[in-house]
UniProtKB/TrEMBL annotation, chain A:
The protein's name: Heterotetrameric sarcosine oxidase gamma subunit
Membrane spanning stretches: none
Cross-referenced InterPro entries: SoxG (IPR007375), TrmE/GcvT-like (IPR027266)
Source species, domain of life: Bacteria
Automatic annotation (TrEMBL), chain B:
Matching InterPro entries: 2Fe-2S-bd_N, FAD/NAD-bd_sf, FAD/NAD-binding_dom, GcvT/YgfZ/DmdA, GcvT/YgfZ_C, GcvT_C, GCVT_N, Sarcosine_oxidase_asu
Name by which UniProt lists this protein: Heterotetrameric sarcosine oxidase alpha subunit
Keyword Oxidoreductase: yes
Entry keyword set: Oxidoreductase
Automatic annotation (TrEMBL), chain C:
InterPro entries: SoxD (IPR006279), SoxD_sf (IPR038561)
GO molecular function: sarcosine oxidase activity
GO process annotations (BP): tetrahydrofolate metabolic process
Protein name: Heterotetrameric sarcosine oxidase delta subunit
């Protein structure tokens, strides 16, 4: 099924822990990411930067490759005196881009999450289990999704995705 | 003899001939055939043998409930045993073999068991082979195992692919007959997200065959037209997903259901089967009903079949199971079969109806066709061995005096229908006994309940007891509407069931000679007399009687036999059927392929294997791995001519004499930051961490609140409000989780954030007398003794890498741990190898790491500790603060048993002969235990050959060990014998720390 | 297969996305506690057949600990709530009272 592609990406990523509802944090994160702080479970994207809501006190800032270390420092400077934790986590994660018409089914074969378009609307970040490892994914536009997992299992996850693609569509959401 | 009819066969395509083989012989069938219908069409009635007596078995059914026609399919990696021929679609080139016979299906040595049946009653294996005792294991059991059993397991790995898929639904409908279709249409029109699944290859269920026989219509249309309309309508609904070849096999808590789709049954597919994992708000069970056999003598002779199956073969597949078919029935259903057979041009010499005075359209139609109807009659016994040659008929109400013998070559039997209540019952739905209809049916007032406490399974159609197509339609539509609305089964009126007399043995007063030939379970050879024997021997519980007799324990799980078995048990015990109750219904509904349970978790996807940034180098340089959790860490790097142990010895020497490199990227790295981080660190670790100076490192221990050691590692203070905690490889995730648990659930008002940075960094241990020189060569950071003393750390640019360097040691040598971005780990590793080549730099694995630490007397979590060990047990009391008011485990450690001076404590152990003591060996203590075995007073936790000292070294936990240095003890050896060893100080290497601090 | 809604991220999580954490609302017995209360804290669990308060972590999701009130016999779920409480919230107790009239928390 050649109509689905799986591509490894290497964006910069900054983990930000703090009170996501505080103005200080929201402003600092937006300034660094160039996108507003998202609501619960949402991704807020602007070009190749953006912010993912990960938990009530955790966000993941997406940046172009190589910009994360500097961005984490900048965040901490802006948040001087505000309780927070900002760290470059670009190397701790692996990111895949999945493109194609039935990518929802590629993911539905691996995760217990409901991939139905009404259950997982565009730009909603679903942290879940992918086969036997934790992962997070969101669908940016129908036909294009991104998935984040731990670096050490990147080969395993890539194998899962490729096998799911090889085994073809299910005919469930397409 | 069975044969193909000249005309007819709704399901087959006579223009699509297909070749296949059975036991190596070439056969032919048509597209649309099942393997069973094609074999019957070829005159092959016998398809297998029974489990215990090896009796010849023909198919008794035409569906998934089949107990007899089990065959092996395919070859090699595609071989599958125990496939039911009745639901195996015929495909071109299919290769099938019969099972449980030797040397051939027609002639089988094991059939001698049947002659010995007097000696093989229910539970025979519990009472026949008791003496002499030794014979069981070596004579009886092997003999029984050879002669029992069905298909052989495949000899090769499964070559097929499988997958799983997850989805959710508002309404999941199990069964695509009239009720299921009606339910799907109603639910679909309501806008619900609907999944409709049918196990068979076509929609419409029994209505396709049964409705035309009596001219029944659905909504005023012929059944086939209505079914086509329904399917067309559903296919236009985007909210409805439909699947044929898919059984809903299990219903579980909170609306979770499993379904197995046999993708390859519909034609070539990338995966043979797909397991669906469905979360459904409501589930409609519309799997129909299962026809019951009648228990008469000789009811297992090939050619005796369920009446519904006989007409399915005739009408559906154009197959006559015989030329002259006697029909015997307890209800109306036998009439349908008789009518179908006569219309197909076959002879029905007699229709035996146990009832008297039956009326209705079916009876009238049979009469109009001139069929001879005998009222109040049954079968006394069937004649024939390999196939039916005739029946002797008798009065049902009597002992079985033969009235007449009728020649025939097949018998169609109908003992009534049992609703398929399996899915309803699996998740906890209760049943009620309908005395008039002689069936267990779903009790709508006691359904399986979901998270909100309301019933989430709605039975419909035959599964709910419906007897007519009209009732199935109404009940299905109502269930579908209610399901879409989130309604409950209590609001659903049960359909009308057909009245049915209870005929559990035929004739009613049959003597033992007949009851010994009445089969209940065809596959496991359980007869009426066996269940009666179990009752006489005291098996009053249906669950016990089932296991004692093996009734219902065959691959069909009693779909045909259970009701007859429990009625027989009830009769023998003088109890009514509802008092006897049913056995437990458990998933799966019918067998599913093990491969679909594994799904895609095979090969590289079997389990995740975590890789470090340097793993490619390890792969390319001959690393011999050992699993450490989901990581694979190099145990050693054997060179040409070396085994893994020799390599570890060499690597150990290299660290002691030159410099070694260890990939320590797997060690946990957790950041703890915040205004309350110091306070939190003091709670997490047993020793003080808040007073650690920035730039310094400290070894720390983590206990659980019981006081038992969980993990250890070096903590570095990164800044005023930030600590970096190193954990063991296995501890990275669970220590992070442990910290979060306490922060979230106990001290949620503390201002602390944690993050697991384990995979952000590659970490390399550079250890040995040449370590400093090597790092100096890399350049960029001052790692001198003065600038970087033991237990300090620094940040800088090392050889152009952004690096943190920790001066810490797990080997006893001068040692640095260099941490860089994971993406730069491989480059750092390469740079260290190149710069250190002339210094003798040597990559070392976990075994050398273990030997080095053991020589130095350092403990290893998981070797010296096992979840029942305290810091004091390991002589680490110095790392347990006495000053702190509280820490996790402080109170636990004061419990009397943990503070007991008699506890085993860590000590070194050296064998008197210098050999390596076996790790895990017991230290023999004085006296014997209450059971008369040698008492022990400790055990060996780690043991290695030390290249540094040239003899075996070991660590052990021994009662009062440190107080007994110099004492000689005995340790056990595998396979017997003892070894003498002396208790020594566990710190063997550089006790003063000159090398470590050098 | 239980399905529990995480009160932090709002995901109706599959049981396989959660890790169980045993009984909720235990009171830690730290230094200075009597032996009996330490024993109770470490080992005594109510293990009721019926209404039970238990801890779960949304391990494969937002990582947060939460509590659930569940009937251990029927798997009715009366509600989930954040772990940052010392007592069961009133709305959960009301949901239990409605569906299990007469239920009282065992002493």
């Amino acid at each position: 099924m050649a109509e689905i592609t799986v591509t490894r990406r290497t964006p910069g990523m900054v983990l930000l822990r703090g009170d996501l509802s505080s103005d200080a944090l929201r402003e600092a994160a937006s300034a660094v990411a160039g996108a507003p702080m998202p609501e619960r479970r949402q991704a807020s994207l602007s070009g190749d930067t953006g912010i993912l809501w990960m938990s009530p006190d955790e966000a993941l800032i997406l940046l172009p490759e190589g910009r994360a270390a500097e961005a984490a420092r900048a965040l901490s400077q802006r948040l001087e005196g505000v309780h927070h934790l900002a760290l470059d986590l670009s190397d701790a994660r692996a990111v895949f881009e999945i493109e194609g018409p039935w990518l929802r089914e590629v993911l539905a074969k691996l995760s217990p999450a409901d991939l139905h378009p009404e259950a997982l609307p565009l730009l909603e970040v679903r942290r879940t289990r992918l086969a036997q490892v934790p992962a997070a994914f969101w669908i940016e536009a129908e036909g294009r999704a991104r998935l984040i997992c731990f670096r050490s299992v990147a080969d395993y996850v890539e194998g899962l995705l490729r096998r799911s693609v090889e085994d073809g569509p299910v005919g469930l959401f397409a | 003899m069975s044969r193909r009819l000249e005309t007819g066969g709704l399901f087959i395509d006579r223009n699509a001939p297909m070749g296949f083989t059975f036991d190596g012989k070439d056969r032919g069938g048509f597209g649309g055939d099942t393997l069973a219908s094609a074999l019957l069409a070829c005159g092959q009635l016998v398809m297998g043998r029974s489990f215990k007596y090896h009796r010849q078995r023909g198919p008794v059914s035409c569906g998934a409930e089949e107990p007899n026609a089990l065959v092996g399919l395919g070859e090699g990696g595609l071989f599958e045993p125990n496939a039911r021929a009745t639901i195996t679609p015929l495909t071109e080139g299919l290769r099938a073999i019969s099972q449980n016979r030797w040397p051939s299906l027609a002639f089988d040595i094991g059939a001698v068991n049947a002659k010995l049946s007097k000696f093989l009653p229910a539970g025979f294996y519990y009472k026949t082979f008791l003496w002499p005792r030794a014979f069981w294991k070596h004579v009886y059991e092997p003999a029984i195992r050879r002669s029992a059993g069905l298909g052989k397991p495949p000899s090769q790995p499964d070559a097929d692919r499988y997958e799983q898929v997850n989805t959710a639904a508002d309404v999941l409908i199990a069964g695509g007959g009239v009720a299921g279709l009606a339910a799907a249409m109603e639910a679909g029109r309501n806008g619900a997200r609907v999944i409709l699944m049918e196990q068979g290859p076509r929609w419409g269920g029994r209505a396709l065959i049964d409705a035309p026989l009596t001219g029944e219509t659905i909504d005023g249309q012929p059944a086939a037209d209505w079914i086509e309309m329904a399917v067309d309508t559903l296919e236009t609904m985007p909210n409805v997903t439909m699947r044929l070849h898919t059984q809903v096999s299990g219903v579980f808590d909170h609306g979770f259901a499993l379904a197995e789709e046999r993708c390859a049954d519909a034609g070539p597919a990338p995966v043979r089967a797909r397991l669906w994992r469905i979360r459904a708000r409501r589930i409609v069970t519309a799997q129909g009903a299962i026809e019951r056999p009648l228990a008469f003598a000789g009811n297992d002779v090939p050619g005796v079949m369920l009446a519904g199956a006989v007409r399915d073969y005739a009408v559906g597949y154009g197959v006559a199971v015989g030329e002259r078919v006697v029909v015997v029935t307890a209800g109306d259903d036998g009439y349908r079969t008789a009518i179908a057979l006569v219309e197909a041009g076959l002879a029905v010499p007699a229709l035996l109806d146990v009832r008297r005075g039956a009326t209705g359209p079916l009876v009238e139609r049979a009469q109009a066709l001139g069929i001879r109807i005998e009222e109040g009659r049954g079968i006394a016994h069937v004649s024939g061995g390999q196939s039916v040659t005739g029946v002797s008929i008798c009065a049902q109400d009597g002992p079985g005096e033969v009235i007449e013998e009728i020649a025939c070559d097949a018998v169609a039997m109908s003992g009534g229908w049992s609703p398929a209540v399996h899915l309803w019952s699996q998740a906890g739905g209760k049943l009620t006994w309908d005395e008039g209809a002689a069936m267990f049916r779903p009790d709508h007032a006691r359904p399986p309940t979901g998270a909100d406490g309301s019933g989430f399974v709605l039975p419909a159609g035959g599964s709910d007891g419906a007897a007519s197509t009209e009732d199935a339609l109404r009940s299905g539509a109502e269930a579908g509407r209610l399901a879409a609305e989130g309604g409950v089964p209590a609001d659903l009126a049960p359909p009308q069931a057909a009245p049915m007399p209870q005929v559990w043995v035929m004739p009613r007063d049959a003597g033992l000679a007949l009851r010994e030939k009445m089969w209940l379970d065809f596959q496991n050879d359980v007869k009426v007399s066996d269940v009666e024997l179990a009752a006489r021997e005291g098996y009053r519980s249906v669950e016990h009687a089932k296991r004692y007799t093996t009734l219902g324990m065959a691959t069909d799980q009693g779909k045909l036999s259970n009701i007859g078995g429990l009625a027989t048990l009830g009769h023998a015990l003088g109890e009514a059927i509802p008092q006897v109750g049913t056995t437990t219904f458990r998933p799966p509904w019918t067998p599913i392929i093990l491969g679909s349970i594994a799904g895609s978790a095979t090969g590289a996807q079997f389990q995740p294997v975590r890789r470090t940034p340097m793993q490619d180098w390890h792969d390319a340089n001959g690393a011999d791995y050992e699993p450490v959790g989901q990581w694979r860490r190099p145990y050693s790097y054997p060179r040409e001519g070396e085994d893994r142990e020799a390599a570890a010895q060499r690597e150990t020497r290299a660290v002691r004499e030159a410099v070694g490199l260890l990939d320590a990227s797997t060690l946990g790295k957790i950041v703890v930051k915040g205004p309350d981080a110091g306070r939190f660190m003091d709670m997490i670790y047993t020793n003080m961490m808040s007073n650690l100076a920035v730039g310094r490192c400290r070894y720390g221990l983590i206990c659980n609140d019981s006081g038992f050691l969980m993990d250890d590692g070096v903590v570095a203070r990164l800044s005023e409000d930030t600590w970096l905690c190193h954990t063991t490889t296995g501890g990275a995730e669970h220590i992070h989780a442990h910290m979060e648990e306490w922060l979230q659930t106990e001290w949620w008002d503390w201002q602390v954030y944690t993050a697991n940075l384990t995979e952000q960094f590659a970490q390399v241990v550079v250890a040995g007398p040449q370590a400093r020189k090597l790092l100096d060569r890399l350049g960029g950071m001052d790692v001198s003794r003065e600038a970087m003393p033991f237990m300090s750390w620094a940040e800088g640019s090392l050889h152009g890498f952004d690096a943190r360097v920790f001066r810490i040691s797990f080997s006893g040598e001068v040692s640095y741990e260099v941490s860089v971005r994971a993406s730069e780990g491989a480059e750092l590793w390469q740079a260290l190898l190149e710069e250190g080549e002339d210094l003798g730099v040597t990559p070392y694995g976990t075994e050398a790491m273990h030997i080095l630490r053991a020589e130095k007397g350092y403990v290893m979590i998981g070797e010296e500790s096992d979840g029942t060990i305290t810091p004091q047990d390991l002589n680490l009391g110095w790392a347990v603060s006495k000053k702190k008011a509280d820490f996790i485990g402080k109170r636990g450690l004061t419990r009397s048993h943990l503070a007991d001076p008699e506890r085993p404590r860590l000590v070194g152990l050296r064998s008197l002969d210098g050999t390596v003591i076996e790790a895990g060996a017991q230290v023999v203590g004085p006296g014997v235990t209450p059971t008369g075995q040698n008492a022990t007073e400790g055990r060996v936790t780690s043991s290695y050959h030390s290249p540094t000292f040239g003899h075996g070294i070991a660590m052990a936990l021994i009662r009062r060990g440190p107080e007994r240095l110099g004492e000689t003890v005995e340790v056990t050896r595998i396979g017997g014998g003892r070894q003498k060893a002396v208790l020594v100080d566990p710190v063997l290497y550089d006790a003063k720390g000159d090398r470590l601090n050098g | 297969m239980l399905i529990l809604t995480c009160p932090y991220c709002g995901v109706a999580a599959d049981e396989t996305e959660l890790s169980p954490g045993g009984e909720a609302h235990l009171h830690r017995a730290g230094p200075g506690s009597e032996d009996a209360s330490v024993e109770a804290y470490l080992y005594h669990r109510s293990n009721p057949k019926g209404v039970h308060f238990e801890r779960w972590r949304h391990a494969y999701g937002c990582g947060k600990w939460f509590h659930s009130a569940r009937d251990t016999a029927t798997n009715d779920v009366f509600g989930t709530y954040p772990a940052q409480v010392t007592e069961t919230p009133q709305n959960i107790l009301e949901a239990i009272a409605q569906r299990r009239p007469g239920w009282e928390r065992p002493q």
